């Protein structure tokens, strides 16, 4: 199993381009994309798409 973590180095169309290249060379890989790119990633590939860790936002009270 290979998991490719995109971190925040790739955004926008670069994410989809890299996913397509990964799909060509290893179609069993799992990609972990930035949270803002999940919808586009899932819609453009048959690879498993994981969400990167998201920290729970804290609400500061006055």
Brief characterization of the structure:
With 62 residues, the chain is α/β, with parallel strands linked by helices. It is built from 2 helices and 3 strands, in the order βαβαβ.
List keywords for this structure.
62 residues, alpha/beta, 3-stranded parallel sheet, 3 strands, 32% helix, elongated
β-strand number: 3
Strand and helix order: EHEHE
Q: Structural class, please?
A: alpha/beta
Taking pLDDT < 50 over at least 5 consecutive residues as the criterion, the unreliable ranges are: none
Main beta-sheet annotation? 3 strands, parallel
The Rg value, from CA coordinates, equals 14 Å
Number of domains: 1
Task: Assign an overall shape.
Answer: elongated
Strand order of the largest sheet: 1-2-3
Our measurement of the CA-to-CA distance between the termini, rounded to an integer number of angstroms, reads: 47 Å
Mean pLDDT, rounded to whole units? 87
Beta-strand percentage range: 15-25%
Helix content: 25-40%
Number of helices: 2
């Amino acid at each position: 199993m290979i998991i490719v973590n995109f971190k925040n180095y790739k955004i926008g169309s670069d994410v989809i381009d890299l996913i397509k290249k990964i799909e060509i060379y290893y179609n069993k890989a799992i990609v972990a994309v930035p949270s803002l790119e999940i919808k586009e990633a899932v819609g453009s590939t048959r690879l498993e798409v994981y969400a990167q860790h998201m920290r729970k936002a804290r609400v500061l009270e006055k």
